[in-house]
Amino acid sequence: MTITIVGIGLIGGSLAVDLRKRKFADWIIGVDSSIRHQNIALLTGLVDEIDTLENAVAKSELIILSTPVSTNSELINKVLDMISGTSKVVTDMGSTKVGITSACKNHITRGRFVAAHPMAGTEYSGPLAAIGKLFDYKNVIICDRELSDADALLTVENMLSVLNMKKVYMNSADHDTHVAYVSHISHITSFSLALSVLDKEKEEENILTLAGGGFESTVRLAKSNGDTWAPIFIENSGYILEVLDTYIEKMNLFKKKIQEKDMEGLKNLMDEANTIRKILN
User: Fold this and answer.
1) Tell me: the pLDDT tens digits for 196-222?
2) pLDDT tens across 100-153, in order?
3) What is the pLDDT of residues 233-251, one digit of tens each?
4) C or N: which end of the chain has fewer Cβ atoms within 10 Å?
5) Do 166 and 274 have their domain in common?
6) How far apart are CA 185 and CA 208, in angstroms?
7) End position of a domain, from candidates 170, 191, 215
8) DSSP per-residue letters across 44-85
9) Are 65 and 91 within 8 A, CB to CB?
10) How many domains does the chain have?
C-alpha cells in the first residue's frame, strides 16, 4: 500500500516507523509545510518522498492527517474532494473530533473518512521525536464509525491492528467530553504549574535543585508543543471550560481546608481522590 502522511511530527513520524517496519506500507509519501521537517523526514528515512498534498493524494490509497487539529479540520473537505469517486480512504489522528466531523458531515464523500484518535504520545514534537512502538497496546478511539463506509473502516482498523492498538468506539461528542477530563485538563494543569513556578522562582538553579520526582512528573507535559495544544484547547473549548470550572472548584476546596487548618477535611478529600486507583489499576 502507498500511504500519505500529512504532518510529519511525533505522531506522523512514529506512524511511518511502524507502518513501514511491519510492512503495512510499501511506500510512504510525506506532506509537511515545514522545509526542516521535510528534510529531516527524508534524511532519516521516515518517508520515501516529499510531495504536494494534491500529488500525494493522487498517488496514495490511504491518507493520514496528522497536523494540528485546526489544520485537520481545514483540510478534510479539500482531501475528500480529491478522493471523490475513488476507493481511497482518509483518516486523522487528532485529539478532538467534533470539529473535524462537523466540518465534513455533509460532504458527499464523508463515508471515505474514518475519524480516529490514538491515545499515545510524548511531550516531544517534530520528526526527530518519532519513535517505534509508540502505539503498541495503547487505546485508539474510532468515532462515528456508522458514518464511514465498511471497507474504509476496515482499512483503518487493519492499520490500527498492525500498530497493536486496542480499538474503542464512541461518538464524537462523547469522545471530546472524555478527553477534556483525562487528557486536556492534564496538559493545562502542567502548563499552569510550570508558569506558577517560573513566576515565583526566577532563578533556574533553585527550580532544578529543589525539583523532585513529583514535580518532574507533574510538569513533564509543560514541555508539549504550543502549536499542537493551543488548537486543541480552542477546538474543545466548550468541554474544557466545563472541566476547568470543576477543577477550580476542587482547588478552592483544598484551599479552604488548608486555610481552616482542617486536617480531617483534607484527609477526607485525599481519601476520596485515592479511589482513582480502582480505575487506573
Assistant:
1) 888 877 766 677 677 777 778 888 999
2) 999 999 999 999 999 999 999 888 999 999 999 999 999 999 999 999 999 999
3) 999 999 999 999 999 999 9
4) C
5) no
6) 25
7) 170
8) TTS-SEE--HHHHHHH-SEEEE-S-HHHHHHHHHHHHHHHTT
9) yes
10) 2
Beta pairing class for 62-65 and 49-50? unpaired
Are residues 248 and 166 located together in one domain of the fold? Answer: no
The one-character DSSP state at 196 is H
Percent of the chain with pLDDT over 90: 86
> How many residues does this entry show for the chain?
281
Q: What is the pTM of this model?
A: 0.89
**Single-letter amino acid, residue 237:** S
Please state, as a whole number, how many other Cβ atoms lie within 10 Å of the Cβ of residue 127. Answer: 27
Do 124 and 14 share a domain, yes or no? yes
Cell numbers that stand for 97 in this block: 473530533
Tell whether 128 and 153 lie within a shared domain. Answer: yes
Hey, which bits of the chain come out as E strands?
A: 2-6, 27-31, 49-50, 62-65, 89-92, 113-118, 139-143, 166-170
149 and 131 both lie in a single domain:
yes
Q: Name the DSSP letter for residue 33.
A: S
> What's the distance, Cα to Cα, between the start and end of the chain in Å?
38
d(CA 275, CA 280): 9
- What is the C-alpha to C-alpha distance for residues 33 and 71, in angstroms, rounded to an integer? 11
Question: Could you list the residue range(s) of the whole structural domain that residue 184 is in?
Answer: 175-280
CA distance 32 to 30: 7
Say how far apart CA 197 and CA 201 lie, in whole Å: 6
Could you tell me if 250 and 128 lie in one domain?
no
Q: Residues 180, 239: contact at Cβ < 8 Å?
A: yes
- The 10 Å Cβ neighbour count of residue 242 is 13
Picking from 170, 188, 207, the residue at the C-terminal end of a domain is: 170
Cβ(4)–Cβ(64) below 8 Å: yes
Rounded distance between C-alpha atoms, residue 181 and residue 160, angstroms: 24
